[in-house]
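TA notes, week 10

Several of you asked for a full example with nothing omitted. So below is the full record: structure tokens for the whole chain, then the designed sequence directly under it. When grading your own attempts, check the secondary structure regions first.
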């Protein structure tokens, strides 16, 4: 099997940049967990803004590199698509954090730690996949990672549905239910972004097999 590294020659910059982007995704999800656990008066968006900006720079660097590097047997569109999928993870995590700052009173009593725990696992898998690209991610390993991401996305969806069912049957105020639904859907979007990144990573491995 031709390794991914040989397809890009001796230049590892693509691998390093993708791994750096995936690391920002991990950091943003962990920051979300820390923010939710913190008192309302000390919550800020600083960490999320910084992570998203760093990831945006990384994404631009990947785009610039694609413009100046001849890639053979490895589609630049695939690299660009992965970079975009990875960037959307911290971007969406920041949106979740924004909701908490907009209406902290409505967030009281809402436990989203189960979803965040699942997202931490998902971003860890995406990071592992990007790091393994440099050494030659095998198709079997890519499939295993991707299957786990699919499972986590399914678990996150189930948790969201279960929480919505409880809320709709409760005496919660209408605006609090709407707020919670919006928040849960954004968390589900983060899980979807992780799944999308995994599918794209597996696709380029399949093409190189």
């Amino acid at each position: 099997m031709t390794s991914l590294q040989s397809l890009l020659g001796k230049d590892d910059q693509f691998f390093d940049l993708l791994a750096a982007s995936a690391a920002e995704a991990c950091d943003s999800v962990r920051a979300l967990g820390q923010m939710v656990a913190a008192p309302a008066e000390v919550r800020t968006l600083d960490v999320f803004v910084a992570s998203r900006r760093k990831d945006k720079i990384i994404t631009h660097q990947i785009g610039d590199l694609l413009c100046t590097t001849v890639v053979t047997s490895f589609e630049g569109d695939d690299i660009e698509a992965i970079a975009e999928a990875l960037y959307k993870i911290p971007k969406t995590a920041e949106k979740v954090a924004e909701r908490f700052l907009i209406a902290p009173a409505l967030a009281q009593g809402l436990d989203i730690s189960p979803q965040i725990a699942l997202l931490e696992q998902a971003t860890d898998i995406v990071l592992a996949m990007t790091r393994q690209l440099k050494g030659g991610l095998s198709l079997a390993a890519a499939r295993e990672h991707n299957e786990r991401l699919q499972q986590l996305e399914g678990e996150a969806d189930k948790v969201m549905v279960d929480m919505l069912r409880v809320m709709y049957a409760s005496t919660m105020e209408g605006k609090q239910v709407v707020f919670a639904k919006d928040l849960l859907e954004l968390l589900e979007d983060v899980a979807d972004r992780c799944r999308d990144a995994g599918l794209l990573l597996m696709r380029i491995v399949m093409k190189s097999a």
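The domain at 7-208 is CATH 1.20.58.220 (Methane Monooxygenase Hydroxylase; Chain G, domain 1). Use that as a sanity check on your answer.
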